[in-house]
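hiii so um. not sure if this is the right channel but i have a protein structure encoded as tokens and i wanna go backwards to a sequence. like what aa goes where. can anyone help
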């Protein structure tokens, strides 16, 4: 009986030692995981800002190489090409770059407000490119 008790006690100690080492490794792993989470969190905001900046730049490049669109504002159109002034002047609108609504009014709205043929306006603007 004593031998069996010694064997059980020995096995009990071994199992406890193994579990303790695994517990220590688990605690170390949890600590490392928390360090990684902290590192990721500290980089997340700057990365999101950089992504937003890159998306904005990509949108700007896409717009810079896109043809004029009726949904563009007068201001966007005037900034797109120096020849826009002459096109607008040919339709009797030489001073749109100084108009207070140029930031809000689209080319469609300009055509409606001044009874301009929108397809012709768009064709002349797109011919600039």
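sure thing!! here u go:
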């Amino acid at each position: 009986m004593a031998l069996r008790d010694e064997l059980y006690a020995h096995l009990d100690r071994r199992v406890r030692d193994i579990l303790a080492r695994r517990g220590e490794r688990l605690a170390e792993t949890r600590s490392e995981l928390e360090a990684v989470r902290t590192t990721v969190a500290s980089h997340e905001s700057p990365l999101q800002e950089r992504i937003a900046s890159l998306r904005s730049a990509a949108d700007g490049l896409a717009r810079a190489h896109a043809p004029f669109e009726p949904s563009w504002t007068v201001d966007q159109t005037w900034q797109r090409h120096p020849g826009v002034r002459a096109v607008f002047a040919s339709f009797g609108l030489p001073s749109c770059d100084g108009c207070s609504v140029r930031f809000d009014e689209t080319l469609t709205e300009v055509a409606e407000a001044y009874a301009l043929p929108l397809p012709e306006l768009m064709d002349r603007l797109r011919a600039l490119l």
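oh and The chain has a mean pLDDT of 84.
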